[in-house]
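Lab notebook page, bench 4
Experiment: in silico fold of construct C2
Operator: M.H.
Input chain length: 222 residues
Purpose: comparison with the prior construct
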Amino acid sequence: MKLEIQKILLAFALPLLLLFILYTLRTMESVMNWDFITWGIYPRETKGIMGIFTSPLIHADWGHLFANTFPLLFLLWCLLYFYRDLGIGILFFIWIVSGILTFIIGKPGWHIGASSIIYSLAFFLFFSGILRKHVPLVALSLLVTFLYGSLVWNMFPQFASSTTSWEGHLGGAAAGIAAAILFRHKGPQQPELFIDEEEEDNSSHPENEEVITNPNQEKKND
């Protein structure tokens, strides 16, 4: 029990560190009157390439950051707790791939914020649980659907506001699905089913085998 609590707390380390960085950068912008907007993604422009790596760290204002805080904390914790050995690798994959997709399909303008990572995490956790058919992960899929199912609407321009990067959301969702498929054979899996040991032993015991003998046959020795 104590070890499990340690694992739960340890899974919070990286999410809290990431949030510390996000809030530090936002504070620097506010206090120093700096503007890190150019750390974002500017699609199909050389100046926006660096944003593939840095855009999730920058937010338009405090409200934008506050809105992303709890989903990022919760979903990233789920990733690192349930997929301990793969968590860091999956995070790196979805971070880069969602950024590249946003860079390719995004409309002109600076795309910033951790929403693409949130969409990636939500879609990875949902589809990974379904593909693995592992009960705890399927339950996690259902929980993510219940909490964040409404995120789907902001992936399409018909429903997203003009200031929302629906391309970042869509790119994030695609990256999450791709990660769920690519990593489906790694990490936690559905437990294998075994035949009942007693039944297996009985079936192989020679006393249970049907033997046909000829009573008229004489016993012969070599």
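Observations: Residues 68 and 212 are 75 Å apart (CA to CA). The two ends are 64 Å apart (CA to CA).
Next step: discuss at group meeting.
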